[in-house]
Amino acid sequence: QVQLVESGGGLVQAGGSLRLSCTASGLTFGSYAIGWYRQAPGTQRELVATITRGGSTNYADSVKGRFTLSRDNAKNTVYLQMNSLKPEDTAVYYCAADFNYRKLPMSEADYWGQGTQVTVSS
Description:
Elements: E1 3-7, E2 10-13, E3 18-25, E4 33-39, E5 46-51, E6 57-59, E7 67-72, E8 77-82, E9 91-98, E10 111-112, E11 116-121
Parallel strand pairs: 2-11
Antiparallel strand pairs: 1-3, 3-8, 4-5, 4-9, 5-6, 7-8, 9-10, 9-11
């Protein structure tokens, strides 16, 4: 049974930092591409960042230069370091995994976590 568990969310002031973690079990983690998404109330889910099996990353323009995605395959974990947070970053953040990287931008990953809330106060 595949599980993805996000952690690290919370309340932070604008300009602050948080590091989200996504830990996977039940799959060969190093073989999967991972995506981080976010969804604020009343909005569509947005792809924030992706990381390939080989560690190549891609970011939404809205977070480029502020967020950094990395993976530790030995720990079955990816990390989303979020710096210079803004109130508009407030959302529930989800991680997702798929063997096929191309499915991530379409939000069609096979496996999803339950989400973690990030709230940035002004």
